[in-house]
Amino acid sequence: MLKLALVFALTTLSAGAVHAQSYGYGTGSNPSTHSSSGYTRSNGTYVAPYVATNPNNTQRDNYGTSGNYNPYTGAVGHRTPRY
Question: CB of 62 within 8 A of CB of 53?
């Protein structure tokens, strides 16, 4: 039983490492983040709370930009940076 648990643990860890490598886990993403509370827009649309990268002079290191990975949601970026 111990061997089975060890094999499962190692398999899970190695699968997670492969998943992280395939998406460049955090590679290129801005390490500075901020969180936002949920709010309602003037047109009545509710915006859920979120975590985002802090503003800077580029869009290439944002979670939503292609090649970057959002560790909070597990989403891979797909947007092309405008600048």
Answer: yes
